[in-house]
Fold each of these.
Amino acid sequence: MALNFFAFLYISLHFHLSYSSPSRLLIGVHPLDEKYYEAEVIECRDGSKWFSRDRLNDDFCDCGDGTDEPGTSACPTGRFYCKNVGSTPRYLFSSRVNDKICGLKLLVFLKMALVIVLVAFLIFPRRKNRRRN
């Protein structure tokens, strides 16, 4: 019974953490900068160009400063905002984007904790209370 519960919990946790993310278009954007990306036409921060919202995070560097690619590694000078759940949020160089390290820490920690609890239940099974007459 306990094994089934922990297996269900493990699978649910895996899918919840893997597939529940904010809007795909705003990956790599600091929460205070989200309003900057709400318009249909967005200006590069260096003022060199304008681009439409559908070109945001399209893996092609339109702006020299990386404004249009906050969530990809397409622009060499771009910076990616990592929420770093469970740790300190920070900016990363775009070369480190999609290396699976930023969001992986919490997931690995939670899965390891669940595995440890599951192993503990298997190694040390609860004994039924026996009534003595």
Note: Residues 24-122 form one domain.
Amino acid sequence: MMNTEQLLIQIKNLLHENPDLTEIAETSLIGIIENLKTRENSLELQAISKLEGRNFFVDSYQRGYKWKPQQVEALLNDIDEFEPENENEFYCLQPVVVKRKPVQHEGKESVFWELIDGQQRMTTIFIILSYLLNKPFFTLRYETRTESSQFLNDMVQLNHIEQAPELSHIDNHYFYQAYKTAQDWFKTKSQEERDIWRDKLLHKTKVIWYMVLNNHKKDSQQHSIEIFTRLNQGKIALTDAELIKALFLQSVMKAYHHPEIAKQKQFEMASQWDLIEQTLQDDEFWAFLSPHKGTNKHTRIELIFDLLAEESKDKQQLNHKTFLYFANQLKNASSCQIEEQWTKVLQGFHRLAEWFKEDQLYHLIGFIIGQKIKTINVLWQESQKAKRDQFVQILKSHIQRDYLERLFKGNKDSTRLDFTKVDYLSSSQRPRIIGLLMLFNIYINEKHKTRFSFRAYNNCQWDIEHIHAQQSLDLPSDAQREIWLNEQKAIIEAVPESYKGLLDTKLIVYQQALAVELADTESLKKEYLDELSKIVGDVKEAIQTLDNLCLLPASVNRSIGNQIFLTKRQRIVDFENKGKFEKEHQGKFIPLATQQVFSKYFSDDVSQMYKWDEIDRSNYKAQWLECFKGYGLDLGSKA
């Protein structure tokens, strides 16, 4: 192979002999130079065999080697259990972040690779290969810890290593533990099994090799520390999205022959990437796509890449599966192929944006994902094959068949839900009822051409609230009695004039009995409540029906307590007003259907506002049945 100087001389001689090639050479050389500039700030998949003879070092800002025997065994077992189905399959290790660095070594300058991230895994591979090959496969040194480097590289040559005095050093202790773990693990294997495992590691195992550009404007070590801190603060490793972004930008520079066009394309891609990420940072947007804590990603754009990768027929569960899919798609890709892949990314984003923008799709998809009826991956696949109206019908059928019919008609795995008898305290039925109340609120929002906020919903803890509940007779403290008495006076003010005198009298008798501490105060209080019940409705009747339930934030529900309709109505109105003006109440919202229940919006003829009566409940029930019918479930007279 020619050295760089010989190559340059050959190019110079060729141009001297063929001056007509000068213009072509200039364009080509500019492209090569631009490519070289970005070469170190790139990534690729490297087989472990390609690391042979390389020099690595770990700088002083990093902690020492800390892998425990269980972690070493896990790596040994993972590679052992990996069975490639064809010659192109490989086991993928987590990313290794490196920086090229000239280092004085054995009296001359050598190229070393600084391990910024991934040093624990690379050290383990070094130890395992040292044991299997009985010699170092590559060199590895720890900066400022000379004794650790010496021990690590000489470990295979030591006899009775467990008695070596160097083991008192903490690094060496962990090195030895890892070496002994590998030794014990391979002792149970035949020579043939060892050879198979070694070949898997060397030729069927690849590492995501991420090379960062040397920043000549900064101190080299400070630059490395900044990268290390970013990767290890909060234990957030390089995400697939970050790796894929580097892949696209790197592929562009390789595929486009004109550097100016390549730079322009990179800028265009980076700008579009930022716009997508910025849009997905809208919590209203994100909440309907990813409502569950376990599905949230550090980089939201990764969702699009996951969905696109899921379209492939490869269903293998691999580390960094999404990244590997795109690495395969972009390998030696032409500019047209890169453009095609990037167009798919943009189209994927626009599809999610359409789902968010269009109210009907937004509500249907948000509910289905939120209630775990179907995953976003399933909905994505279904939307591929259907036109907009067909997709809407598919979504509605999911709510009908996979949700409502299972709740109300029952199946082998679930207990049937009864509209007229709801066990809201049951651990199995409670989340179902909250889900139904959420669906009803979505239906009411759609009727009013407003949007249900999945963000606000996801940020609240929710309670099932009885619209009309029986008042508690227990008032253990003087302060509670005082609050209760004031509430009763407000209730009496709100009832029709013809009832006020009798209620006033009974409440005064109860107050007087309290003042002189008579023994029968509770019976007097019960007399008052019985009379009040005759006026505001029989609260014992039909209390556990779906048409007597609504949805409230848990904090609001606790503040309301077990009160009658009139008291609850006033407190909810107060809470709504506070939510508009007081910071501590903002972010908690009263759902639209609940607001309408307590304003009697569903009742055609409102003659009074102090009780929830049979007519109110009947009108409310009719809205529920219309809601279910809209999703294909007709309960009719059964409800």
Note: The CA atoms of residues 219 and 225 lie 10 Å apart.
Amino acid sequence: MTTRMLIDATHAEETRIVVVDGKRLVDFDFETATKRQLKGNIYLAKVTRVEPSLQAAFVDYGGNRHGFLAFNEIHPDYYQIPVADREALLADEAEQAARQAELEDRVDENNDHVENVNKNESEPVIAEGDDAV
């Protein structure tokens, strides 16, 4: 059977497009001058919320509402991380895990500790790298 695309642009305010395979309708789409077409366009979007229970994310693409992006619609190449970046991420995760384990070895929850107080309550605590005000 022959697949054909038929375009009706006889009216300036509306364009209709139909894809037919023989006598079977495969796709129908239309665009009006008053309404912007979203379907089929490519947008730069920012993930605003991830919903694991829905296996999806909500994205802000600049429209009136957030878009819905199902995980199975994300191309597998998106997850390909360059080897150097992957190794850096793994090293960073290992370092953070080691620091967490060291902290957990030193401090136990709900146990008494003898501590030396270095500041009064009214004095600000300034972490390394912070500038004093």
Note: The mean pLDDT is 80.
